[in-house]
Amino acid sequence: MSGYSYTTITMEPDQAPRVAMHLYPDQHARMTYFPATDTPAAFILIEHAKAHLSIGTTSDTTITDAHVQFARDLYGAAAQFLADCERLRDDHATQTDQHDTSANQGAAA
Fold it and tell me: What CA–CA distances, in Å, run from 10 to 21, 53, 99?
């Protein structure tokens, strides 16, 4: 399993700079949730290589319906990502099993 992370900064004439962070995690990636128990802020920290991404609320912000909708959208995207990862893993396992079966049948002949 190999993963990598990188950040790009794009600067176009007459436009604001654009910063993009790309995470392609492997077994070294870590995700931690910090609940809003001791403070009025909650956040998720994703760490991979030297990249750190935090998603959260701030302690001086009143949480609105827009914040709740963002959290729902994040949850939905994570659920879809999980479903795709499981499907791709299962597809790979099926292809590997079929390849192994074919190789064993050829060796037995």
Answer: 12, 19, 44
